[in-house]
Design goal:
single chain, 721 residues, alpha/beta, 24 strands, 48% helix, 20% strand, binds ligand C2E, binds calcium ion
């Protein structure tokens, strides 16, 4: 379930719950009502049946009482009219137990009948003839002396009666000669099912509308009353009792109230839950976006990049551009982190403007950005994209009224299909960027497997270097003489490191110094090399040397103290040593460089600016910083003396050096012509294969030395600043 559907689900669930609850309550209530009604109706039926049963029973009892009775038999046989009324028929006229009586057969001619509240004199047809005929037939089937009383319902004069019949018998039939049963008088009793009885039953059993109907009633409860033929001749009917309905009628409003309240409360709770869930979903979404956004630039961050890579993995052709602002740390150190942040923000804004926009643009580190292109043409477009990024960096960035130039190293990598993962493509682009950074180029660098090999070689060198720290004998020092341009004699020598690795064989200083710098091993390696030079200087107390020092060594706060310590230990004068530094130091931080150079000078060292004319070459640095010597980079030598512009360049550096009272060294002198040209322009010192290659200390002793007294006046460090 996605959290987005949560509010809807809550509502649905609650609505279903409410509906179900209402259904359950409603259903139960109706069922209970129905059950109550049903039960009451069954009870009423049983009661009415019981009441009618009572009527039958009392009619039967009276019939039996009046049946086997010698006195009654005798007065009837005697036709004693007064006694018949007084002792027998008056029961009908006073109507307490039965309300109709007919006497016939036996001694009677025709029928004599009496009715409740009627006359003493008998009437002939109060009981209908068919009732008497039917009763005669039924009683005939009853044995003499039996107490069986046939009964059935029938109407008489529009009123319903329960009739029962019996013979009026002698108690000892044998005493009168066991007459034929049919010769006995027949008595028919009628018990009236009239208003009075019904009222009594209704009152007793709390029934409403109890009455007798001829036709079967359509509604309400009923009880059939069987006639002579066994089929109903009438029905007792009454209003079906509905206690359930009545109860419901009384409960319905409170119940509805409670239900309404329940619905209201649940709806309110649902709304609350829904609002809470919505807030939760919003919050979830917000924090999910926040987790994927760089707070400073609002660009997607590294996490977002990881997801973007996963999403785009199946897109086939793709290209990734990786770039990193050069010297961003220096920018931060110079202008402070807050202003550094402003710069990054402005940079991000410029990157956002680039059209057509890449499929992904994100900031993945302090000064690292990634762009991704996917789909057909991605590989073809990425170079262009790199160019655009580079262009965006050209205009200076304004930060609090100051303007800054920054450059970036760019690398990219492409794939045609899914041959490598995007993760790998990112690694390749990163590597290509790093390569470009090392090369000092701002042009986008395309990934090449050779770069990978290079980096693998770097790794191998790094490992071997690590081991070499415990085997300093793998390192050695060669010395290249530096000649006085006028006399051609050696005035000093430049110490150049050599490493014969047990693992890798000889590795050139260009390579291993760089790797040592990158891996942070340069402090240890530099220490080993410095000691070696000092040991040689101890063996040759007149020797003056130039020692190359990496900017990273100089950045180590302890550096000057450390080398002074070593020199003190070995009793070597700092004045015999010239520290050679490249411009890389000044670029990183001119203020720091000035401070360090002052430190060195105060400690008594001489300083030289190495490889001048390459890289950043700022005359400004040369002017501001207290060097003793400047060394013209050997790359200029190749075109000297044939290329007029190279010669001009060299001559201007010499003039500049002299104007700043620096000693000028021409490096990489391989031919006599080059030496001649340099000498012609006033270069003070010369160094190169023409005179000598780097050599061992013992070999160096063979080189003609300048006479200390005859050596040209050395230009001293000026007191500037
Ligand atoms: P570098 O300081 O510019 O050193 C001069 C380099 O030029 C040396 O290479 C030297 O052999 C070479 N060279 C001298 N004359 C000629 C010439 O006439 N023609 C040509 N083509 N080359 C010439 P090497 O010894 O291979 O050193 C290379 C770089 O390694 C040095 O450049 C320096 O930057 C670094 N390096 C060497 N030793 C050390 C060291 O002890 N410490 C540090 N930090 N760096 C060192
Ligand atoms: Ca050097
Ligand atoms: Ca050099």
């Amino acid at each position: 379930m996605t959290p987005r559907h949560l509010p809807f689900r809550i509502t649905l669930l609650m609505a279903l719950t409410i509906a179900l609850f209402l259904l359950a309550v409603g259903g139960t209530t109706l069922w209970l009502t129905w059950q109550l009604n049903e039960r009451a109706q069954r009870d009423a039926e049983t009661m009415v049946q019981g009441a009618i049963g009572d009527v039958r029973q009392s009619l039967r009892n009276i019939a039996i009482d009046y049946s086997i009775w010698t006195r009654a038999y005798e007065i009837m046989m005697a036709q004693d009219q007064d006694a018949i009324y007084a002792e027998y028929a008056s029961g009908a006229t006073n109507g307490d137990i039965f309300q109709l009586l007919a006497l016939t057969d036996g001694p009677f001619e025709g029928t004599r009948s009496w009715i409740a509240d009627g006359a003493e004199e008998p009437a002939p047809g109060l009981v209908p003839e068919p009732v008497i005929d039917e009763m005669r037939e039924r009683v005939a089937a009853v044995e003499v002396g039996s107490s069986e009383v046939p009964q059935f319902f029938a109407e008489a004069d529009g009123v319903l009666y329960l009739f029962g019949g019996t013979r009026v018998e002698h108690e000892d039939p044998e005493a009168i000669g066991s007459p034929e049963p049919s010769s006995y008088p027949l008595a028919v009793f009628g018990s009236r099912i009239g208003e009075e009885l019904l009222e009594e039953i209704a009152f007793h059993y709390l029934l409403r509308g109890l009455r007798v109907t001829d036709a079967e009633p359509r509604t309400g409860s009923r009880l059939p009353l069987a006639g002579a033929a066994g089929t109903p001749v009438a029905w007792l009917s009454w209003e079906a009792p509905t206690p359930g309905t009545e109860l419901l009628g009384r409960l319905i409003w409170p119940l509805l109230g409670v239900l309404g309240l329940f619905v209201l409360i649940t709806t309110a709770v649902t709304r609350m839950a829904r609002r809470y869930a919505e807030a939760l979903v919003r919050e979830e979404k917000r924090s999910s976006v926040a987790a994927r956004t760089d707070t400073l630039t609002r660009l997607p961050n590294r996490m977002a990049l990881g997801e973007a890579l996963q999403r785009a993995e199946r897109k086939g052709e793709a290209a990734i551009l990786f770039f990193d602002v050069n010297g961003f740390k220096r920018v931060n150190d110079t202008i402070g982190h807050l202003d550094g942040d402003i710069l990054v923000k402005k940079l991000a804004d410029r990157l956002r403007r680039i059209q057509p926009a890449p499929d992904f643009l994100g900031r993945v580190g302090g000064d690292e950005f990634v762009m991704m292109l996917t789909g057909p043409g991605a590989s073809a477009r990425v170079g262009d994209l790199g160019g655009k990024v580079r262009e965006e960096m050209i205009p200076p960035f304004e930060v609090r009224g100051k303007s800054f130039h920054v450059t970036a190293a760019l690398g990219y990598a492409c794939r045609d299909k899914g041959e490598v993962s995007l993760e790998e493509l990112l690694r390749r682009a990163d590597l290509a960027m790093y390569h470009g950074k090392k090369q000092g180029t701002t042009a986008p660098v395309r990934y090449d497997p050779a770069i990978d090999h290079g980096s693998q070689e770097t790794l191998r060198i790094q490992e071997a270097l690590h081991d070499a720290l415990d085997a300093p004998e793998e390192f050695s020092m060669l010395y290249q003489p530096v000649m006085d341009a006028a006399t051609g004699r050696m005035v000093k020598a430049e110490a150049l490191a050599r490493w014969d690795s047990a693992r890798l064989g000889p590795v050139g200083p260009d390579k291993f110094i760089m790797v040592a710098e990158e891996s942070g091993l340069i402090l240890d390696v530099g220490g080993i090399l410095f000691r070696k030079v000092c040991e040689d200087m101890q063996r040759w107390p007149e020797l003056e040397v130039s020692i190359n020092v990496s900017p990273l060594q100089l950045n180590d706060g302890e550096f000057v103290r450390k080398i002074i310590g070593i020199l003190g230990e070995m009793e070597i004068e700092p004045g015999r040593i010239e520290i050679e530094l490249t411009e890389r130091l000044m670029v990183a931080s001119p203020e720091m460089a000035a401070f360090k150079l002052d430190q060195l000078r105060e400690a008594g060292f001489r300083t030289a600016l190495d490889d001048f004319g390459t890289g950043f070459s700022s005359i400004g640095y040369l002017k501001r910083l207290p060097f003793n010597t400047v060394k013209i980079d050997r790359s200029f030598m190749a075109d000297v003396p044939d290329d007029e512009r190279a010669v001009q360049m060299v001559s201007s550096i010499i003039m500049l050096g002299h104007s700043l009272e620096l000693a000028v060294v021409g490096e990489g002198v391989e031919t006599a012509e080059q030496a001649e040209a340099l000498r012609g322009h006033g270069c003070d010192l010369l160094q190169g294969y023409l005179f000598a290659r780097p050599m061992t200390l013992d070999q160096l002793r063979e080189v003609p030395q300048a006479d200390a007294a005859a050596s040209p006046p050395r230009r001293r460090a000026r007191s500037r600043r």
